[in-house]
Records
---
Amino acid sequence: MPALKLYRLYISRDRKYARVLHNMLGFVPRNLSLYKLAFRHKSVAPQLKEGLKNSNERLEFLGDAVLGAIVGEMLFKKYPYRDEGFLTEMRSKIVNRNHLNQLARKIGIGDLMDYDSRMIHNPIKQGSLMGDAFEALVGAIYLDQGYVFTKEFILKRILKPHVDVDALEQTETNFKSKLIEWCQRHGKEVLFELMPNEEGARTKLFTVKVFVDNEECGTGQDFTKKNAEKTAAEHACALLGL
Amino acid sequence: MPALKLYRLYISRDRKYARVLHNMLGFVPRNLSLYKLAFRHKSVAPQLKEGLKNSNERLEFLGDAVLGAIVGEMLFKKYPYRDEGFLTEMRSKIVNRNHLNQLARKIGIGDLMDYDSRMIHNPIKQGSLMGDAFEALVGAIYLDQGYVFTKEFILKRILKPHVDVDALEQTETNFKSKLIEWCQRHGKEVLFELMPNEEGARTKLFTVKVFVDNEECGTGQDFTKKNAEKTAAEHACALLGL
């Protein structure tokens, strides 16, 4: 093991944090402050300057883009005979908020997260906290180690052990039943409300809003009521981080 | 100049094409077939297998993702004190269809494009042909030369000479006047139509549709009529590739 790695893991002031990250990620990060930032939710972030908190949101922006490119290339190469519509759909199954929340939990991001503890028992507020932090982590790794390293990390350490891409190909996520089950489990009332049609509209579009405990959580619009409900439920699932 | 480069530019069977690309891109590509594919619109693409044409659409999917990551990082580093909302907006000003169409024309993609010539005089059909090919080109360069090279290429050869990021920061694109001007110049009739409100809807949303020569080109929905028109015009500009 090179001297610098040894130093970071066993001698430096931040050695404990470095070892935790080493266990989680499988490599020794260089710039620890990037990782600390990735796990800092805006609810506890200090003001950096007017209108900007020193939270993980900027890293999330970067990580989202890098993750999209990495997963996009993986799918492009894995499916040489599928069109771009299929590739787009598959990518969104992998990088959607719900799935990223699960991935983040699997690799144990929760233990490192820094956020206002009042959010813990409010799933609506907590929402996509974990998935956002996962994206921010990807941004941190990218800045710390570069694109090629980040790609290797995502492919070998995240996708290979945690994501069954072939199974995802078969699933069509049923967001409506997912939402209803979640509400039953958490004792919340869920309501799908069909909004009246536009009067004299040329197309017959259905608009459905979904309310969880009277709080509007999503809207969907489509040519069938069923599809409008589906979209509304999908939005609600994303909002609730399911 | 290394022997392989010389061979590609002056001896190989495809030397003419290699020299054209060299002039346009500033480097000698390795795998020319990737670039040919990037410039092949689906209107002239051969069937690869059922449901899939051998066109540039898959490369466009890949290039879109890679370009998003590269531009995202550039903005992340250029604006250390701006939040992710600003970064997202700036990126979309750079990589939106209209702007990519312009960029593609600037670097001369039109001369290399392979598409059904019946589309030439139909701007609605032509739409974002050039911008799509630009993204596909980014995908081709990425597969041919890797991420670091592609990033250098985009930053030095595209963004630096062709995009004034500071000026873009100031502009708020006025899509409505852009659309109207374009229609006047091309002798087309443009019509913004306010659709009737939803009866009994809780919120007072305005829906505006825009028609160019009686063809619906975009819809917008917002709480003010003006903003709904703006969104509708933006969609129409994207569709028309303005």
---
Amino acid sequence: MKKSLIALAVMAAAGAASAQSSVTLFGIVDATLQFGRGNVSDRNQLGNSGYNSSRLGFRGTEDLGGGMSASFWLEAGVNNDNGSGQATNTNNQASGNPIAGIAGGQGLTFNRRSTVSLAGNWGELRLGRDYTPHFWNLTVFDPFGTNGVGTTATLNTGFTGVTTVRASNSIGYFLPRNLGGFYGQVQYYMGENADPSAGGVEDDGSGLSLRVGFATGPFNVAFAYGKTEFAAGDIKQMNLAGQWDFGMAKLMGQIVRDENGATDADGWLIGALVPVGAGEIRLAYSTYKVDTAAADPKQRKIALGYVHNLSKRTAVYATYAQVKNSGGSAVGLNGAVTAANSSSRGLDIGIRHSF
Amino acid sequence: MKKSLIALAVMAAAGAASAQSSVTLFGIVDATLQFGRGNVSDRNQLGNSGYNSSRLGFRGTEDLGGGMSASFWLEAGVNNDNGSGQATNTNNQASGNPIAGIAGGQGLTFNRRSTVSLAGNWGELRLGRDYTPHFWNLTVFDPFGTNGVGTTATLNTGFTGVTTVRASNSIGYFLPRNLGGFYGQVQYYMGENADPSAGGVEDDGSGLSLRVGFATGPFNVAFAYGKTEFAAGDIKQMNLAGQWDFGMAKLMGQIVRDENGATDADGWLIGALVPVGAGEIRLAYSTYKVDTAAADPKQRKIALGYVHNLSKRTAVYATYAQVKNSGGSAVGLNGAVTAANSSSRGLDIGIRHSF
Amino acid sequence: MKKSLIALAVMAAAGAASAQSSVTLFGIVDATLQFGRGNVSDRNQLGNSGYNSSRLGFRGTEDLGGGMSASFWLEAGVNNDNGSGQATNTNNQASGNPIAGIAGGQGLTFNRRSTVSLAGNWGELRLGRDYTPHFWNLTVFDPFGTNGVGTTATLNTGFTGVTTVRASNSIGYFLPRNLGGFYGQVQYYMGENADPSAGGVEDDGSGLSLRVGFATGPFNVAFAYGKTEFAAGDIKQMNLAGQWDFGMAKLMGQIVRDENGATDADGWLIGALVPVGAGEIRLAYSTYKVDTAAADPKQRKIALGYVHNLSKRTAVYATYAQVKNSGGSAVGLNGAVTAANSSSRGLDIGIRHSF
């Protein structure tokens, strides 16, 4: 006999006792036909997460009384095209990535989030692996949400390394809600090296990041700054982004500045989400340029997409994107390879189902 | 306080709302004492999946209205004798397997199935990692279901490689039910190489497979054909199989033909399931021969087993099998090593518990 | 829409049908700020499991009638500081550990426990990966329960190898309860090598272990003995341990003797748990000495801790420990490195949340 998890409706019927001990199983399975075209080679593949990131997670909250609560969140990325899991990084440094060749042996890790929290009217203290504050603006204010072929050019190059999106060994603090529209968070994360370490790398992989924002009515704007220390040169990420919801369309914009040691990079994005019946049109233009002494590799990217919601949980979607490389850049889309200073085109067609 | 998943009975009580959002946690834990005997070395071990494959899975269906539904299925193989997971393969080629030496580091992957589907009265479209159509006849029409020491000789040699059982990056279509007993499915899967690729391997690991069958009353027969492309030589699998349920016994048979480049292989199986009170006797004879220029390595295998059901979910079982090698073949059972042209014997004794 | 798992209260309401098919999802997320100090190098990190071992598990029991039941238990260790899983060991030998360098690629395995059982009034038969009987006394009768910086010195050195805590491929038998306070278990586990094997290692990793105890009122005492075979020298573990609950304090003690081939080691522990309101003070002194021909490396360790329960499920805690090395020993705490015959200090501050 199979067991079944019950809908929230039954949950409510169970009353206060169960409210104090809810555990939620949740997830997304998003499969994407990906077509990539470049002037060196093309690629067609079944990928995942073209609209939302595929995942399987477990989370829960316990009411401790007096306005206090404890909670946990364990969320694993899933490559549902082939069933493999996704690696995490253990120490915010390259040495915390797995050796090459794991391929189909990569098991599930809680790479997306793995935290325990205490919360009260003073805010939330969160420990574990979590998103970095400096990442949020890149996804919240991008019509393509950092998923699929259409996402911002800023994320094309890996310029900002291991802690671009998440950090392990982090201590985070979140401001309480109900601050009149102000919100914010700060996070410290550790590289966990011996101190002293040979080569002066005891701070490698340690960092500090913060994000502050203001949202009111149709308006939302936020600024973030993060710095990860490395003896070979710190990595810094700054971004200012926001949106205005005009009802018939939601306009979004980002300004991004990154530094990796002595090298700088700049980017920006402008985009829109346009509701159309049960669906939504998505549009964005983004650019990213790395300033090196020799050349300035640059990408300019346009993306156009449509999402059609079959229900709240299930959607079909298509996204087309084109990137133009210059200054020696050779970014290809959806696995295509393109020569320096050439273009690449990509198309995603997919299904997103959440539970 | 521990959370508990509730039985389907409660599910029904929750009415239509929950029917639309059911998520099911399911699994099997099957532990098997395995004894293998050969004339080079013997082996005794605690293995798994001697009767049914051990697994942990999550699946669910959403009613989209109008006869449409969306569903997902994430199912991980579990080596419950030692707690490790099982690797998947990412690209239907040897390079998609993990490097050697992962051993106890092998984590859980959704190697058994990892799919998202849309279904309607027109059938089902399924994307992800799934069984290949050409595999089904080998398990459905084998009294030992491709599990344990008794399973068909066809699967002894690994002759048909990575996509014998499942394929990643697949697009599958299933005929609707209610076609007067006819059933069928077709699947295309991708190797996802660059095009063009060095060495002309851009199609390596891509394949097409189909299965058609007819079932009515006690009778069920199906044919399947699958081909996986490789520059070094395509792999083809064909099989025709069926069963007739006489009530006092269910007779089964298979005819198998495989090709790996220029080399052919042929096999067949005849078997029976005989219900005996709360139990079932299982019998099979199978043979498999590879036709090479130098020699024709061949296995002939007999298997005899009994399954005793303690409940619908729990069974104990025992299976004895013997393989006779000829033509240079040296297949050993349950980890035993036997010299070319020698026999090997194996015994499974186990418990299967499902949830 | 998200699915929610329901509390045991609802479970009961569902009546007998669901009692026969309960599946429980459970876990612990324990995050620990770890500070280590040594005279070579210090280390500060966010770790896990400072009070209880972090885990995610699935377990269930089926009533088979007539006093019989079947059950399963799948429990994975979780490094929630960085989201990675924990490796298991497949064959009770070093070769069953993963290759080096998996780092953030280490996926979830059911390394903590992976078993299927049949039980009746005659006791329980359990197959799979499980704790070794010779481990239990080390954790049950240690105020720090083999977690965190305060745990017994016995576990500092890795002297007893792969099967110290758990064994794979095991067959265990547990005495029934209701034996007037007597309890006991025996376990056989297999290394699963070929027989004969080159080098005479066919028994490597195989072992036998047993534990017997007696508990009545405030008193509990147990003895355990385990032996794992290796051609290079067997590993033996013996321990006698017990506790007396005086109400205002629970006193605990252990005597430990280990052998690894021709080398012996001895240790002992004395400790106490003192309830204080919603909290508990923990104290222990332990020592462990390895007798080698050249020198006798020895650790003496003191540990002091406090656990404050915010609820039954959530606690905050702090533990301080100091180890004194002599005889050439160089054990460091919480990742600190200390020179031979020097001291090391460690501090844990953490949150434990269970579900």
